[in-house]
Amino acid sequence: MTAVQAAALQQPVPEYAIDTKKLNLWYGTFQALYDVDLRVRQGMITSMIGPSGCGKSTYLRSVNRINERLGYVRIEGSIDVMGQNIYDPGVELIQVRKQVGMVFQRPNPLPISIRDNILFSHRLHAKGGGDVHQGTADEIVEESLRTVLLWDKVKDRLKRKATELSLEEQQKLCIARLLPVKPKLLLMDEPCSALDPKGTEAVEELLWELRGQYTILIVTHNMAQARRASEECIFMLMGKVVEHALTEQMFVTPLHKETSDYIEGRYG
Ligand SMILES: Nc1ncnc2c1ncn2[C@@H]1O[C@H](COP(=O)(O)OP(=O)(O)OP(=O)(O)O)[C@@H](O)[C@H]1O
């Protein structure tokens, strides 16, 4: 066992990958999130549902501090990721981005080769001397692509441009390229909305493969997807968390009328 591994084992592992306390967020004078208290269990897949404009993406973007690039966003409250408040003044953005990977609606691989896409942020973070995958470039590429079930399909065309892949493959690649910097948390903002049903099924299968090793928080408009692909589910409405429960429980016996109205398609 290396000294780094020994030190890591001394650290208590938090039960929650995300612990949000009294999060309020304003875009200028418009308040988009109200007193959000949310805990996302480590290693599990949690989905976030709610009608358009209820604040799902805003919340997700707060967990990797993307919102702060907009000069007019103000935040109160705290978000602990793996036990550390990412809004503490001492916490650097690069540290947050390393721990928290994000996948967007439309796959956005860089217009470079498949191989270089995988190595891109690893190279960036390795320069900073952080804890990243220590293998050779070939090992990193193979392991990342294997993890997202893409290796066998692309191993003979690693030098081809990533943008030539199908949308499903591009989305898997976008997940794969996060892995070499060893993130703890993967945020996914409607990752299947650009995919056909077969691509959607393949990405959902991948989520279950990643479960356990990574904590996954996925925003989806697709009720069936939330039900199939998550263990806990959060329902938001007008910037507030209405309900957070085991997914099956939320879909079978929701506690709140607003939740059942939404699930049954009465609005949103
Ligand atoms: N960059 C921004 N500037 C100003 N207002 C914003 C910005 N982004 C989102 N909003 C507003 O904040 C509220 C929450 O938006 P958000 O995108 O988080 O909702 P959402 O639940 O993810 O919606 P959708 O399901 O349509 O993606 C909305 O009223 C939206 O108009």
TrEMBL record:
Molecular function per GO: ATP binding; ATP hydrolysis activity; phosphate transmembrane transporter activity
Domain ABC transporter: from-to ranges: 18-263
Keyword terms of this UniProt record: ATP-binding, Cell membrane, Hydrolase, Membrane, Nucleotide-binding, Phosphate transport, Transport
Keyword Mitochondrion assigned: no
InterPro entries cross-referenced by the UniProt entry: AAA+_ATPase, ABC_transporter-like_ATP-bd, P-loop_NTPase, PstB-like
One GO term of the biological process aspect: phosphate ion transmembrane transport
Tagged with keyword Lyase: no
CC terms in the record's Gene Ontology section: membrane
EC number(s) on file: 3.6.3.27
PANTHER family documented for this protein: ABC TRANSPORTER I FAMILY MEMBER 17
Protein's recorded name: Phosphate import ATP-binding protein PstB
Name of the encoding gene: pstB
